[in-house]
Predict the structure.
Amino acid sequence: MATDIQSSTGSTKLIWTGRVISGVVVLGLLFSGAMKFTSSPELTKGFDHLGWPIGKATGLGILEIACTLIYAVPQTAVLGAILLTGYLGGATATHVR
C-alpha cells in the first residue's frame, strides 16, 4: 500500500511539472504571436532582415496563436504539437536561409 502512495505522488509531481513547462511554452508562443500584430520598428526590421514582407506578419501571428491554442487544449494537444513543430521548423529554416 505504501508503494501505491509513493508512485501516485511521483506521478502527480511529474504531471504538474509537465503542466508548468507547457504553460511557460504556451505563454511564450502567445506573446510571440501577439507581437506580430504590432507595427513596431523592431518587427519591421526583423522581417526585412529575413526577407519576408511585413504584410505577412498578421497572418503568421494568427497561425501561431491558432496552433498554440490547439496545443493548449488537452484533447487536441498532439495535433497542436505537430502543427507547432511544422511552424517552428519553418521559422528555423527561414533563419538558416
Summary: The chain has a mean pLDDT of 88. The two ends are 57 Å apart (CA to CA). Helices lie at 2-35, 41-50, 57-72, 77-96.
